[in-house]
Every structure is written in C-alpha cells, then in structure tokens.
Design goal:
Strand content: 25-35%
Distance between the termini: 52 Å
Number of domains: 1
Largest sheet: 4 strands, mixed
Length: 80
C-alpha cells in the first residue's frame, strides 16, 4: 500500500473535504491521485500557501511548498 498524506493542514484543507490520509495499492495510481490533490489545492484554495509533493519511500506527502529565499539586496535590475 502507498499512502498519500497531507502534512500541513491549513483552514482551506480542513474545509475542503479532502482526505488527510489515503491508501492506494498501485504506486503509479497513488502518484496520480497525489498530483490531482496537489493541483486542486494550488488552483482552488485561497492562494496563501502553495503545495508540493515529496516522495518518502513508498508514500507521498503533500505539504507547503518551500518559499524562495528572499533576495539579499538585489532589486532584479541590471545594475547589481
């Protein structure tokens, strides 16, 4: 069995009705289900968080995506 677990449960997750933990026999099917869930969360939720999938051996974890580090002092222009 392959588990899909939502590890970070913000208010949108709690209100969504998505299963917090799901078990699926096929690893390919579990990955497809995890991708579908992640896409729903990123497209339909409020947008305060982005979600990503991490594979942990035979399981898939859906959690908050790592935020890009803040730029030190560069403004993004060509003068830096």
């Amino acid at each position: 069995m392959h588990n899909i677990t939502i590890t970070h449960q913000c208010g949108c997750v709690k209100r969504s009705g998505l299963e917090i933990e799901t078990s699926i026999v096929s690893k390919d099917d579990a990955l497809m289900k995890a991708l579908d869930m992640k896409n729903i969360m990123n497209e339909k939720f409020c947008g305060k968080h982005n979600f990503d999938i991490t594979e942990d051996k035979e399981n898939f974890l859906i959690s908050f995506a790592a935020k890009a580090p803040a730029s030190s002092s560069c403004c993004g222009g060509t003068s830096c």
